[in-house]
Sequence to fold (138 residues):
Amino acid sequence: HSHVTQEFPTTYNTGTYGASNPLGLSGSNFPCQLGVGGLPSSGTTEVAIGEPFNITFAGLATHGGGMCQISILPGFNPSKSNADFRVIKTHYECLTTTSGNLDSGAPNTMMATIPAGIETGEYTQSWTWASKTTNELY
Fold:
């Protein structure tokens, strides 16, 4: 991996552009790098409401960390016009295994919890990363 990508929970198929690349300046691959067929690449992940769960990342170009947000969206059909993403976790110092651009390869993890009051069902989980040392958004 070059840039950091989410490894768990399962991500969407990302087509030819790839999940490790930043979002395009035109917004053409927003959101979720526009998953192919609107389905996760290898099944779904079950997460209990009110219970913390780990999100794991892989990659070497951490760009000094930055700000990460975890959001959820009902269903498996994210689109630019969908305004139903709900932020469930903001972490202002994420991906900081080292202060530089290339990390040690140590796993990066982040905890999040689906808050009480969320209806049971199928959701898309989104990870957004604003790099600390570049103007790129992932």
Remarks:
- DSSP finds no helices and six strands in the chain.
